[in-house]
Structures are given as C-alpha cells and as structure tokens.
Amino acid sequence: MRNKNLVEDETYDPKDPLDGAQPILIVGASPEGKQTVMLDAKVFEHPGVWGIVLSDLVGHIANAYTQQGMDPIAVRNEVLRMFEAEQSSPTDRPRAVRARET
After folding, report:
1. SS3 of residue 51 by DSSP
2. Per-residue pLDDT reduced to its tens digit, 44-60
C-alpha cells in the first residue's frame, strides 16, 4: 500500500539535513533498550504544542516503516497502542538530568 502522505521525491542537503532548523528533541537508544532524551522545553511557550510534535512524529515513524514495505495505518495503530500502554503502566520514570559544568 502506498502512503499518499509520503513525498517520495523530496530530498535534503546532507550538509544541512534540518534545513536551518534547530534540534528541539534528540532521543538515543542503547542496545539494551535504555533511552536518553534531550529536549528544549523553552522552544514552545505552551507545553500542549508538544502534542502536535508527538503526533507528527508518529506520522514520520509510519512513513519510515512504509519505506520498508509496512502498512502505514498498521504502524500508526501499533505505535499509538504502545503509547497508551506505556501511559497506563510506565516501564520507567523520566528523570531530570542537567549538563555538567565544564
């Protein structure tokens, strides 16, 4: 199934993949599944805007798996199912960590 929302011929400059935008969210995952998250909470005045970011992110995840031959609707549903499960019964708790002074 072709994802009609995926722009397949769009390209980006590998020297500037964010097209001049500044990163606001970086997520790293270890081989053991531990995640490290860095985000800039000052970028949006209202915290609810992160809901839009999360929704857009689900779409990007679905598009990425579509390129591997998966159904985008099935991917989206699975991501949202796991999101709800994690919200209902968290597997860990986020903790605030500040950068070390150099």
Report:
1. helix
2. 999 999 999 999 999 99
Under a CB-based contact definition with an 8 Å cutoff, are residues 61 and 79 in contact? yes
CA distance 93 to 7: 36
Domain boundaries, the chain: 43-88
pTM of the model: 0.74
Distances (CA, A) of 40 to 21, 29, 67, 93: 13, 18, 30, 19
Question: What is the residue-wise DSSP string for 19-45?
Answer: TTPPP-EEEEE-TTS-EEEEE-TTS-S
Instruction: Please choose, from the candidates 11, 36, 13, the residue with its C-alpha nearest in 3D space to the C-alpha of residue 25.
Output: 36
Q: How far apart are CA 9 and CA 92, in angstroms?
A: 39
CA–CA dist 16, 9 (Å, integer): 18
Structure tokens at 2: 């072709």
